[in-house]
Amino acid sequence: MEKRTRRARMLGWWYVCIGGAFMLLGLRSAVRGDTIWSVVLRFAIAIGFVVLAKGTLRRPSR
């Protein structure tokens, strides 16, 4: 059981990293003055990955 929770934890942190990268891409696009839809899309993808990470990192019920 420990191996499964460790894998889930690693996968959750992987999702956090991907979400953070998309946040930075969205911020860069906003600073550069790219179109609003590309900025919003990147932030939406980032939020999706963060929500996925939160669900993955949540402790299993005992």
Main traits of this protein?
mainly alpha, elongated, 85% helix, 62 residues
* Helix/strand structural class: mainly alpha
Can you tell me the overall shape?
elongated
Largest sheet: none
- On the 0-100 scale, what is the average pLDDT? 90
Number of domains: 1
What is the terminal-to-terminal distance? 12 Å
Give me the count of strands. Answer: 0
Radius of gyration: 15 Å
* Share of helix, binned: over 70%
In short:
The chain contains 2 helices and no strands. With 62 residues, the chain is mainly alpha-helical.
Plain-language structure description:
It is a single chain. This protein is 85% helix and 0% strand. It is mainly alpha-helical and 62 residues long. It has one domain (12-57).
Give the topology.
Layout: H1 2-32, H2 36-57
